[in-house]
Design a protein that fits this description.
326 residues; mainly alpha; globular
């Protein structure tokens, strides 16, 4: 297959049609809630929410209020200084608890990704059967999610720490030089570059490696080998598809924001509820779950989850071959 034959619009159109077929042809509320459960398991660690707030303070009153607030908390600060060992032990225990919860959620999400993919491929809404069937593959995906998640976090912290230490050691408050500013810009560029590279590998894993694991019932390491061989032959196609997917994610985010605003934030509140939000966002999650496999199937039948299908959305089995003419 030549580089020019790799398409981006056609897989997007097929993924959109597949989403419409699964969710709206016909519309079944029970199917939505069952499929939404596997989508919730699959995507529980993919999004994040942020909460911002602020206060309005007037002129000189801000300093006085800060001093009053500081005075109110001074006994707490004094107690923490006197019991630093207990504070450190509590902080370490809290950190261990957070890490343990993160690991458990990563394990559940890894199995959920294969469940959700299986349901999208077969246009069904099963829970227990794919959860049990893909146990070994899910554990393999889990290990790689830990590597990509915690490993990526450590890499970013290392880059930020080294850059911050270098900038701090050369910082002079009364003489900020052009060289120091250039170093600051360079550190930001390096950090963003590393973040994009890590995001790209995470994208390859979610969009393609898991698809290979599912199709061939292999471990994630072997799935990586298959995907990287394809990537080595056509790197430009994968990079363009990464950028195209980022654009589609941005469009989806604006669409969700528009829904939240048009419903006076009622939609945003409902979508923030963990399981219910996954059900309401099924059109988005089913579309993006279909997009990667639709792109990958262009590279040959060994990468096609619907290789025995003539229907553009994969729901009609191919007829048996005609008998030979005597």
């Amino acid at each position: 297959m030549s580089e020019e034959s790799i398409e981006f619009i056609a897989p997007t159109s097929r993924a959109m049609g597949r989403m419409a077929t699964i969710l709206f042809r016909p519309f079944q509320i029970g199917k939505w809630f069952a499929l939404g459960f596997s989508a919730w398991l699959a995507t529980m660690l993919d999004g994040c929410s942020s909460h911002t707030g602020g206060g309005n303070y007037s002129g000189g009153g801000a300093g006085e209020e800060w001093e009053e607030l500081k005075g109110e908390f001074q006994p707490v600060i004094d107690w923490m200084n006197e019991n630093m060992e207990l504070v450190v032990a509590f902080g370490a225990g809290l950190l261990v608890l957070i890490l343990a919860i993160g690991i458990v959620l990563t394990w559940v999400s890894s199995r959920g990704k294969l469940m959700f993919l299986d349901n999208v491929v077969h246009n069904r809404a099963l829970v227990s059967q794919p959860w049990t069937e893909f146990r070994a593959e899910g554990n393999s995906v889990f290990r790689w999610q830990l590597i990509l998640g915690f490993g990526g976090m450590l890499v970013l912290l290392a880059v930020a720490g080294l850059s911050g230490w270098g900038l701090y050691s050369t910082y002079q408050p009364n003489a900020v030089t052009g060289g120091w500013i250039a170093g600051l810009i360079g550190a930001i560029v390096i950090f963003l570059f590393v973040a994009v590279v890590l995001a790209y590998f995470s994208f390859l894993f979610r969009s393609f490696v898991i698809v290979e694991v599912y199709k061939h019932r292999i471990m994630a390491t072997e799935g990586w080998c298959r995907v990287l061989r394809l990537h080595g032959r056509r790197p430009a196609s994968f990079v363009v598809f990464f950028l195209w997917s980022a654009l589609l994610n941005l469009i989806a985010a604006f669409a969700i924001l528009a829904v939240a605003l048009l419903t006076c934030c009622i939609g945003a509140i409902l979508m923030a509820i963990p399981y219910l939000g996954a059900v309401l966002l099924l059109p988005v999650s089913v579309f993006f779950q279909s997009l990667g496999p639709e792109f990958l199937r262009q590279f040959g039948p060994e990468h096609d989850l619907w290789e025995n299908s003539l229907d553009p959305f994969g729901f009609e089995a191919a007829p048996p071959p005609l008998p030979p003419v005597s």
